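Memo to structure team: turn this sequence into structure tokens by end of day. - J.P.
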Amino acid sequence: MQLSHRVTNITEGSSDGWDIFYKARQMISEGKSVTELTIGEHDTRTDPEILKAMNHAALSGHTGYAVVPGTQSLRETVAARIQKNTGAPTSYRNVLITPGGQSALFAAHIATNEPGDHALFIEPYYATYPGTIRSVGARPIAISTSAKHAFLPRKQDIIAAATGAKSLLINSPNNPTGAIYGSQTLHDIAQICQTHGLWLISDEVYDTQIWAGKHTSPRALPGMLERTLVIGSMSKSHAMTGSRVGWIVGPETAIDHLINLATHTTYGVAGFIQDAAEFALKQGAQLEEKIAAPFRRRRLLAQDILDTQSIVGLMPSQGGMYLMLDIRSTGLTGEEFADSLLDAHQIAVMPGESFGPCAAGHIRVAMTVSDNAFATALRSLVGHAESIKL
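Reply from structure team:
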């Protein structure tokens, strides 16, 4: 029997650059010791107090069907947090609770694109972006950036792709580059969206991991409140990756229709998980800073190590839990370097090509192991690069 093109074409028959990750996991299953610096999985797990709140909610009976839009109290808590942090007026009617940020990305694109529509996104990109767009039947159109411009999108490049498109997906702080979009970049994006009638989908799951500069939600910019859908998640901010709880924030009319979509797809998020998320959010900035602290510390550690050599370049990292390293001086592609590093030193990193062609010759390193293990791995990585250069 024939399957739909929509589902068989999600990755266009490729692995979306995950070959190194799967190879590393295979080595681990064979009993080999591998330092994994691939995915954004915290080395410290969900805070025990959050788990206690989750357990209490489950034992108290919040295990049946939860209301599809999300519990009233969690929606209100998310809305209050967003209004406080961004200044944009937000009520619970602007919030839909979703099973993680990935579900929210899918919902946002199916809400804004008809089959065949052009959906824009910035490259380098989080690995699922083009597949998410294809899965709703839209056509993914990448807007390339360059290391020369710190991987920030240029106004003229967005304009060149904007005519006839329906949506633009951005991610700041950015995965994989660590770039934060400054005021001029966001102003340009807002202006283009308004001029060309684009929905803006703003993935802000790293908004608590800011190392330099300032995070601004484009939804708060003039004229953007009614054309922006913001993606949020508890995964990165509160180390709740496996709990699968996130949200979309947008205009009330859009949220109403997205509630209909959720009714016919996910049917909501488990109530006891929502209660735990609400508990976590109500701990405020102190808990968020605690979760972010290891990555802030390891970024400085990486700077100290990389400052002592000139083979591996560190791209400016203003936020997030990753570093983008330039290994072009070795003469290898990101894929070749990552593969050889795994074979030689049992260190797994993501090749830049996983995030689009413009990141070729780079690798992404997740700062997700202990400080000592991270420093050891980074020094081995530099030594590997130096041995190739020789």
